[in-house]
Amino acid sequence: MQLRCYRCGWSFAISQDELAFALQALEESQGNHYDARCPRCRHANPLSLEQLRRAAPRLPPAPPAETPAGE
Q1: CA 13, 45, 11, 2 torsion: positive or negative?
Q2: Which of 15, 38, 40, 62 gives 5 a disulfide partner, CB atoms 3.0 to 4.6 angstroms apart?
Q3: pLDDT in tens, 7-35
Q4: Is residue 42 part of a domain?
Q5: Domain extent at residue 16
Q6: How many angstroms separate the CA atoms of 51 and 26, rounded?
Q7: Residue 44: Cβ-neighbour burial (10 angstroms; 0-12, 13-18, 19+)
Q8: Burial environment of residue 2 by CB neighbours within 10 A (0 to 12, 13 to 18, 19 or more)
Q9: From CA 71, how far away is CA 65, in angstroms rounded?
Q10: Total of domains in the chain
């Protein structure tokens, strides 16, 4: 996910691993935003839960559960 710092204007990226961690942590703690730190000025750039969900990779749908032929 590409970001631009609100304070200094530096462009930086968040890895897919960090994105997945942020989503998991926010869902467990019922939070509403994640603070992505700018590597240049260390300013916290808030990312809403909705922004993180839009940037997250989509998981393939789960295969349907097989039912026994006798039922």
Answers
A1: positive
A2: 38
A3: 999 999 999 999 999 999 998 999 899 99
A4: yes
A5: 2-55
A6: 12
A7: middle
A8: exposed
A9: 13
A10: 1
pLDDT per position as a tens digit, 36-54: 999 999 999 999 999 999 9
Residue with tokens 């990312």: 47
DSSP 27-53: HHHT-SEEEEEPTTT--EEEEEHHHHH
pTM of the entire predicted model: 0.70
Residues 6+ apart with CB under 8 A from 29: none
pLDDT band per the 50, 70, 90 thresholds, residue 57:
confident
Q: Which two tokens stand for residue 9?
A: 């204007």
